[in-house]
């Protein structure tokens, strides 16, 4: 894959490239695994001194697939795709990545898709994950350099994800709110998390979109931090756990058997097109069915 950059000051090639998120590791890959660096069409090395206006061309070698990740063909609902990024509407019931208990995962499906499309880069780079029973938008980088460029956005929390959730509890849930409560591992479980004064800082904001029978609310949620199970833990903490989320005290008698959580909105800056990339997706059928039933009551 080829990229070009123009020097705006006298500097070394490696310094210019670092300013465009090309790391030492990626430069080493270019040097030793079949890549190429040229200045104004002539091959040079990373310490070559540039003049203003010099054009640096870098060719990054293709990425081979991870051998241990099995390719599993499966239909995909692709919301957006270009040369660098892919946005997927993830279904319920599939983990993002393989583990000891999950092998039929989104990562397996994406690898198969890349192979079927004969893409030059076949490594799977997940930028934003979702839990097994959370549906909605997932973001993938289609090569390592694209992933590196989004890492900075992840670090400063400029990639915006919003979720719809159905929650129910006792009392009155305010129209909008902010939940700031540290989250750590539960003392009696390796799976669950809990609000813990010694845990990591976590912030969630929300707005109530609609109110239904059974004191159920449809809320639009924005994460400001990315702790494991953050939304589920925070809403359980304030007494309004997610429907279907029996792990954190949610009701399971209203027609939905998984945590009622859906990533409906994703926004990030595409550094290659230099434009904002914004994507939305409708609620899933199980969400809609619960809402319809509650509206009848």
UniProtKB/TrEMBL annotation:
<dbReference type="InterPro" id="IPR020103">
    <property type="entry name" value="PsdUridine_synth_cat_dom_sf"/>
</dbReference>
<comment type="function">
    <text>Responsible for synthesis of pseudouridine from uracil.</text>
</comment>
<dbReference type="GO" id="GO:0000455">
    <property type="term" value="P:enzyme-directed rRNA pseudouridine synthesis"/>
</dbReference>
<dbReference type="GO" id="GO:0009982">
    <property type="term" value="F:pseudouridine synthase activity"/>
</dbReference>
<keyword id="KW-0694">RNA-binding</keyword>
<dbReference type="GO" id="GO:0003723">
    <property type="term" value="F:RNA binding"/>
</dbReference>
<feature type="domain" description="Pseudouridine synthase RsuA/RluA-like">
    <location>
        <begin position="84"/>
        <end position="237"/>
    </location>
</feature>
<dbReference type="InterPro" id="IPR006224">
    <property type="entry name" value="PsdUridine_synth_RluA-like_CS"/>
</dbReference>
<comment type="similarity">
    <text>Belongs to the pseudouridine synthase RluA family.</text>
</comment>
<protein>
    <recommendedName>
        <fullName>Pseudouridine synthase</fullName>
        <ecNumber>5.4.99.-</ecNumber>
    </recommendedName>
</protein>
<keyword id="KW-0413">Isomerase</keyword>
<dbReference type="Pfam" id="PF00849">
    <property type="entry name" value="PseudoU_synth_2"/>
</dbReference>
<dbReference type="GO" id="GO:0140098">
    <property type="term" value="F:catalytic activity, acting on RNA"/>
</dbReference>
<feature type="active site">
    <location>
        <position position="131"/>
    </location>
</feature>
<dbReference type="InterPro" id="IPR006225">
    <property type="entry name" value="PsdUridine_synth_RluC/D"/>
</dbReference>
<dbReference type="InterPro" id="IPR006145">
    <property type="entry name" value="PsdUridine_synth_RsuA/RluA"/>
</dbReference>
<dbReference type="InterPro" id="IPR050188">
    <property type="entry name" value="RluA_PseudoU_synthase"/>
</dbReference>
């Amino acid at each position: 894959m080829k990229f070009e950059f123009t020097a705006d000051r006298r500097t070394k090639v490696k310094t210019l490239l670092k300013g465009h998120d090309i790391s030492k590791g990626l430069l080493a890959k270019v040097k030793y695994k079949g890549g190429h660096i040229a200045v104004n069409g002539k091959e040079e090395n990373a310490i070559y001194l540039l003049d203003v206006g010099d054009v640096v061309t870098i060719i990054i070698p293709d990425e081979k697939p991870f051998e241990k990740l099995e390719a599993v063909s499966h239909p995909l609902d692709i919301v957006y795709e270009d040369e660098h990024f892919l946005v997927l509407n993830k279904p319920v019931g599939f983990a993002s990545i393989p583990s000891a208990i999950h092998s039929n995962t989104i990562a397996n499906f994406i690898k198969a898709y890349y192979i079927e499309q004969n893409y030059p880069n076949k490594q799977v780079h997940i930028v934003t994950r979702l839990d097994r029973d959370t549906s909605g938008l997932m973001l993938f980088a289609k090569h390592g350099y694209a992933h590196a460029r989004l890492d900075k956005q992840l670090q400063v929390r400029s990639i915006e994800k919003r979720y719809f959730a159905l929650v129910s509890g006792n009392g009155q849930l305010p129209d909008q709110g902010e939940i700031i409560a540290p989250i750590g591992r539960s003392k009696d479980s390796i799976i669950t998390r809990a609000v813990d004064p010694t845990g990591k800082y976590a912030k969630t904001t929300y707005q109530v979109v609609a109110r239904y029978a059974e004191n159920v609310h449809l809320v639009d949620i924005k994460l400001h931090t990315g702790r494991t199970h953050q939304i589920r833990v925070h809403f359980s903490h304030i007494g309004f756990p997610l429907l279907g989320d029996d792990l954190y005290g949610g009701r399971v008698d209203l027609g939905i058997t998984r945590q009622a959580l859906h990533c409906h909105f994703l926004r990030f800056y595409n550094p290659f097109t230099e434009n904002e990339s914004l994507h939305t997706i409708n609620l899933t059928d199980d969400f809609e069915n619960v809402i319809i039933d509650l509206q009848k009551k």
